[in-house]
Design goal:
- The chain is of the alpha/beta class and 562 residues long.
- It has a domain at 441-561: Glutaredoxin (3-Layer(aba) Sandwich), CATH 3.40.30.10.
- Helix content is 30%, strand content 27%.
- The protein contains 15 helices and 25 strands.
- The chain has helices at residues 35-45, 71-80, 83-89, 126-139, 188-192, 257-260, 263-274, 320-339, 349-373, 378-391, 395-398, 467-482, 511-515, 541-551, 554-561, and strands at 24-31, 51-55, 68-70, 91-93, 95-100, 103-109, 121-123, 143-147, 150-157, 160-167, 170-181, 197-212, 221-225, 235-239, 244-250, 281-295, 299-300, 303-305, 311-312, 441-442, 457-462, 487-492, 502-506, 522-526, 532-536.
- Helix 1 (35-45) runs parallel beside helix 8 (320-339) and helix 2 crosses helix 3.
- The longest helix has 25 residues, at 349-373.
């Protein structure tokens, strides 16, 4: 098959660890050099934690695989320092169209408002995403990438983990305080530890056909129910970089995966859709089955499961890779805080608490989409087709159409790390919510709020506060830093000179004040993963310090001791 992309080949390197007669110890070892493993390495590196990444291969993914990168993922990658090349290479889209037969029933815009740094989605082949992540990892001295180092044995207890690594030069042993497992949906490590990922396998199959063609189709998501060129089945069309187009054809449960991947069987399907006169070449093909499943716990002693090894969803809705990076960002700051002595070990358990919530939310949306797209009996098909027919004319029916509820970051409901609201705010951006970007001026000159957040705690405040209270806030930030807790103060639309821990920002368009309900005075405490920890109308230093300690899990340690 022709290819628009040449996979890089990363060199095998003999590590000095291989020459040691005794196991060599590292604080964190990451198994798997895919999106989740590379993201974890970058997140920890930016917080000063050294990691060793072990991968049994020496290149990035083969085939486009996950292609839809959501706004939140792009914001995370931007913070890691690898987001810009993704934006430059990817195909930006905000618009989606839904068809029933030949007729378009409606369209939707995922980012209808202006003043966001990144778009709702880009389409970018996974191999590009991984390549840009590898390049960034190579720039960070805290990360050691070891290609063709295959983990063949793992044991773990409450004090750490021990692993055996197999290479062309023989086996060697490592130990670590924390093991991050990112070895994929069929995780060999998960299986070797006797752990399971439980859930549902849907009796349907889809064909992915990546074709190279020059076409003037717009860069938008197009989804057909009962496509005229594929009767009785669903089809999805997306544009990727390098004139590569992703087509997903629903096949049915009885389809033979190996037969369906053959060019002679793909060609008639593509020609029925595009016409026999259009020139195209097949780049990559795969047949997949919908799976929605997760582990009962993402933590096993000192092994932390991330990405597909922890949870898996069917692809419609783009919740796989996007959910994986949200999980990594949730774990990264907590692990760094524990390793560096800023938080009790009990904080790590909230990775499971919060991301189980995220996984359940993703699985729920994915399951509902799958059930709608692939009706299991006559009654459910009649219901679906009636909804699609009504959606032509009635907006309420469009809310019932489900071609994949596209990935959005989850709000951590009822997390033990949030301080509940005691003041009146809009429902949006309540504690547990991910922060929304907004244009600002001043500070580091980036022009965007999110570029001032992440990797540390932030206090975001707007309003008239007396000078004595602001001075006391500066002292609190100094005291916290002496304890190893970095806290930066972001003052919005406030006169005066920057303090030792204070950055002045100007909300020159008024967007920040609107999105954060700061038209009147208000204060936000924001976690290192850019999620809201607490908010108040007035600045109370005791409440703020208590909220910082709560977000670091100090009360969880006390509860465990009790």
């Amino acid at each position: 098959m022709p290819s628009s992309y040449t996979n890089p080949v990363y060199p095998y390197t003999h590590s000095p660890d291989q020459d040691s007669a005794q196991p060599v110890h590292h604080p964190v070892v990451i198994v798997g050099g895919g999106p989740a493993g590379l993201a974890a390495a970058m997140d920890l590196a930016l917080q000063g934690v050294h990691t060793v990444v072990l991968d049994d291969n020496n290149t990035v993914s083969v085939g486009s695989r996950a292609i839809c990168l959501a706004k939140r993922t792009l914001e995370i990658c931007d913070r890691y320092g690898c987001g810009q090349p993704m934006l430059e290479k990817g195909v930006t889209w905000n618009l989606g169209k839904v068809y029933f037969g030949q007729e378009q029933v409606y369209e939707f815009n995922l980012l209808p408002e202006p003043d966001h740094k990144v778009p709702a989605f880009i389409n970018l082949q996974q191999y590009y995403m991984e390549e840009f992540m590898v390049q960034r990892c190579m720039e960070l001295p805290q990360i050691e990438l070891r290609w063709l180092h295959k983990v063949t044995r793992v044991s773990t207890d409450d004090s750490g983990a021990a692993i055996t690594v197999t290479t062309r030069d023989g086996d060697y042993q490592l130990t670590c305080d924390y093991l991050l497992v990112a070895d994929g949906a069929n995780s060999p490590i998960r299986d070797s530890l006797g752990l399971q990922s439980r859930g549902q396998v849907f009796e349907d199959r889809f064909l992915i056909a990546d074709i190279i063609m020059k076409a003037d189709f717009p860069a938008e998501r197009r989804f057909w129910f009962d496509a005229p060129f594929h009767p009785g089945q669903s089809t999805l069309l997306h544009k990727q970089a390098d004139n590569v187009w992703r087509i997903d054809f629903q096949l049915g449960w009885d389809a033979d995966p190996e037969e369906e991947k053959k060019l002679e069987n793909i060609r008639p399907r593509v020609e029925a859709m595009l016409g026999k006169d259009r020139e195209w070449e097949l780049e990559w093909a795969s047949v997949y089955t919908f799976r929605c499943r997760k582990m009962d716990s993402f933590i096993h002693h000192r092994a932390f499961f991330i990405g597909d090894s922890a949870h898996q969803v069917s692809p419609f809705g783009a919740r796989g890779a996007n959910g994986a990076l949200q999980g990594v960002e949730n774990l990264g700051w907590k692990l760094a805080a524990v390793i560096q002595g800023r938080a009790p070990a009990a904080l790590l358990q909230t990775y499971d608490t919060e991301r189980q919530h995220g996984a359940r939310e993703n699985i729920l949306h994915s399951t509902r989409a799958t059930d709608f797209m692939t009706p299991k009996n006559h009654i459910t098909r009649v219901f679906r087709d009636t909804v699609l027919d009504m959606s032509r004319h009635f907006p309420f029916a469009r809310t019932l159409v489900n071609s994949g509820r596209l990935s959005k970051p989850c709000t951590y409901e009822e997390t033990p790390l949030s301080t509940p609201d005691s003041d009146a705010f809009k429902l949006a951006l309540r504690p547990g919510s991910p922060c929304t970007d907004a244009p600002v001026s001043g500070g580091n000159g980036s022009g965007w709020l999110l570029n001032h957040l992440g990797g540390q705690f932030n206090v975001l405040l707007r309003g008239e506060f007396d000078a004595g209270r602001i001075t006391a806030l500066e002292r609190l930030a100094t005291q916290l830093r002496e304890m190893g807790i970095r806290l930066t103060i972001l003052r919005v639309d406030a006169p005066g000179e920057p303090g030792a821990h204070t950055v002045h920002l100007t909300d020159h368009k008024g967007v920040l004040a609107e999105r954060y309900d700061l038209l009147t005075a208000g204060v936000y405490l924001i976690r290192p993963d850019q999620h809201v920890a607490a908010r108040w109308r007035q600045l109370d230093l005791q409440e703020l310090e208590a909220a910082v300690q709560r977000a670091l899990g100090s009360h969880l340690q006390q509860e465990c001791a009790a």
